[in-house]
Structure formats: C-alpha cells, structure tokens
Amino acid sequence: MGALTFVRAGTRPIAGGVAASRIRCVARGQRVLGAACARRRARGARVPATESAILRAMESDMNASPESQETPASPEAPLHPAPARSPLLVSAQRSVLLVVDVQDKLLELMESRETLLGKLKQLAAAAQLLSVPCLATVQYPEKLGPLTASIARYLTPDVQAAIPGKLAFSCLGCDAAVAQLRSTRREQVVLVGLETHVCIAQTALDLVAAGLDVFLVVDAVAARHAIDHQTALRRLEAAGVTLITTEAVLFEWVEKAGTPEFKQISRLVRFGAED
User: Which of 134, 171, 174, 199 is catalytic?
Assistant: First the structure.
C-alpha cells in the first residue's frame, strides 16, 4: 500500500447497488490493510510491499505467540512504550494536501466564498508550517485563470512554477498531477477545493480506487448548489472517503499542545491565516 500504487478494483458494470457494495468492501479492506501496516511499523517490523504479502504477514502475526510479536527491549527503551497512533488519524508525516481548482472565476460563483477561502488558507498555512506537502491543480486555466493568489503564496516555489492545468475533472486524469502525487510518497490525501460533486468527487473516488486514504475537508469544499454538495458528501462517505473538518485536520497534524507549532496552529484557528 505504498504511495499511489493505482491498484484499481476490477469490477465490471453490474447492478448499481452491488457495484457500490463491492467498492465499499474494497475500501474497508484497504483500511484493514493500512492498519496492519501501521501496527507492523510501530513495532519495527518490515512492511511488505504487496497486498498479498501484507495478508500473509497478517496471518503470521495472528498465529505468532504474543511474546514473538513484541519488540526486543533495549536498556534505553521504556517498559511501556506509547501505543501507535491510529491509522484513521491524519498524520503530518503521512499526508499531502491537495488543493483542487481554487480559481477566482470559480470562487466567485460560491455563496460562502469568503468563509471557504478562509478555511483553505488555514490549511495551506498549516501545511507550510508543519512541512506537509501541498499540491494544487487548476481546471482549464486558459478560460478559468490561475490558482487564486492567496492560496498560491503558501506553495513552495517549485510547486508554484508547475501547477498542473487539466481538462479532465479528476486530478488522476492529469499525468502531471499524478506524477506530483507519486513524488510525495504519501498514502493519505487531504482533499479540498472545487466543486464538491464534480472535480472533488471524481478525484476522491479515483484516489480510493488507487488504494489511498482520502480525507475530505467538508468546510473546505463547495459547490454552486447545496443539493449537489450534500449529495456528493453522502456518496463519498459511503464509498470509503473520510469526512473531516478543517480544525480537526489542524489538530491531528500537530498532535499535541505545548509546542511552538501548536501555538502557531492555535493562532491560525483563532485568527485565520494572513493575506
């Protein structure tokens, strides 16, 4: 389950309910495999490269005695090491922030554009602060223009210089965007942008099919019509996408209080990001 392996579920077109159920089963299976990998990493065991090898390792882990699963103690090791973080949490070390098609000509069509832009800036600023890779795409830039400047300023210079323009609605239909995602080697994608039922939904479903964990930030996506937005959220959650809020992402990224990073994240939460 490495970075963007693009292992797609090979289902042929059948009755919609059965196909959707099969996709949800695949998504649940991917979460189980991800959790197994996280447990092996936490105790210093090797993580297999393929799904079949992971399944064999899981079977071996279940058959092994409890003593054989423990990491050998060293003189410096604590007697009761802290438990591993849940793989269902967003991790600053394992995630990438993907900003989809936040362009002025699209933003001006959104009813709550100022609130939306504020959340997007908070996430982009936090990603910059915590060294979470931040990527972006733009849809049909010749007609809809570049990435909104207040978001672009938080991208690294090399990312700013190579923002993929696309015609496909899904980011995974754009070779340059796929290459950038692969290069991060991150298995969690924090997904934000426009519009919820079109580019966001198609990107999210393709990412799930590719074996990645998708966290859709519900207050950092939008659509022109509420029914499209709400229906897309229900559909994506049923397909295995995790719904989350901006503030939840920020505090899961920072993990704990009492650090300089926490103070800066708290300031972002209270006052928003600077323009």
Answer: 199
